[in-house]
Amino acid sequence: MSRQEILKFIEENNHDLLLDFYNKTYEKLKSLNSSIDRLTLYLIIVAFLYFISSGKSIQSFQVGPVSIADISVIVKILPVLFSYILLDIVITSGHKAEVFRIVKFIAMSIYKHDYNFKDLEDTKHSGIVRILMPFSYSIEFSKFNTEKVHILQALFGFIILSPLAILIFGPFYLEYYMLREIYNTYSDFFSKICFYLSIWIIGLLIFYMLSNMIKSIKEQRQDLE
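RESULT FIELD:
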């Protein structure tokens, strides 16, 4: 929902309906936070399994009663699984951002918090909003996102937060690394299926991200009109 659509929804519904809708979306936001944490853990486990299974010293792999004699099967499947989990994280995060915006707007409306237009920006959250929302590190760090920042604070923040770029772009590089290894090492039919399936999933991920970016730009232009 765009900003105008949310504000129109708030204007057309009474306090009781808004409160009921707020409670439902709040619970959904908590569920989405848990889903992202769980998917992130799965992504780390898949990456860990890949580096273990790609080792030359390992000839077989066994999980409970299941035994895999050819370890290369795991090496070929993991890029597909990794790209799928990455896609799931991106889509869930996009949906979380939309739900968060709705919960934020309704919370400010229900509790009649005195806010201005800048408070409705996705990167700025008042103290009241941070207290009302389910805990997340992104919301907690947002309290440092102020218009007036000392140059030393900005420089120190840049140095401290710059490693986060590894967390953002690292999974994409790892996916590229895994696909490159499959392309250079294997030539059987199964490996080609895994290779192109992974590329297709990454293509869906890029399409989703670009579509959301274009949608966000259009909404910002509408808000300025």
